[in-house]
Amino acid sequence: KDYHWNITQTEILSNIKTIIKTFKHHGQYKLIQQRVMMLDSLNGIMGKDGGSYKLMRYIYENLQEQLSDSPDYWLQRAKVIYKLEKYSIGSVEDAIDFAKKAYHDSNRTRTINNAEFMVALLYGKLSIMQKFNNINNIINTIEWFYKAIKTHEYNKDYVNSMLENKKAQKGTFVTFCKY
């Protein structure tokens, strides 16, 4: 969104860090910190223009020191790359590692299920980017989608939103299945 602000990436990051530091260890207010670090929240505030990916990536890379102990942080960092990266196979491979970290490190069922599904989507995206030339990534996609869909009852809304076929572009799941 164009608010005609003259605010730099550094100032945006500083404000987000302040909110996170303020609420991270304050029990009932921790939810504020969790909501602030979510991609959908940040994207809603910052807008979804062409510079959004660079800004979101900058923010998440620079929040690592404060949030590296949070599986939800790693899941959101993977989601940034899944939703906004278009060309870099290396970035998608990094995102798979981030989502797997969230999957393995979390104690929260919802985070585990969301991470499981994010890994599947990222392997699907990677397979599509590689024009289905890497059999190991295709196998990983199928295995992770199987696990994620099998447990989707725990978080139907999230799974359905990630599976949906958008009007402008086919979703990763649909594109992968059509292959």
Protein described:
The chain has helices at 9-23, 30-36, 39-46, 52-67, 71-84, 89-105, 109-129, 135-150, 156-163, 172-178. The protein has 179 residues and is mostly helical. α7 crosses α10 (172-178). The longest helix has 21 residues, at 109-129.
Shape, per Cα inertia axes: globular
Instruction: Enumerate the spans where pLDDT stays under 50 for 5 or more consecutive residues.
Output: none
Radius of gyration, CA atoms, in whole angstroms: 17 Å
Helix percentage: over 70%
The topology string of helices and strands comes to: HHHHHHHHHH
Q: Tally the beta strands.
A: 0
Class by alpha and beta content: mainly alpha
How far apart the termini lie comes to: 36 Å
Mean pLDDT: 79
Biggest sheet, in brief?
Answer: none
Q: Helical region count?
A: 10
Determine the strand fraction and express it as a percent band: under 5%
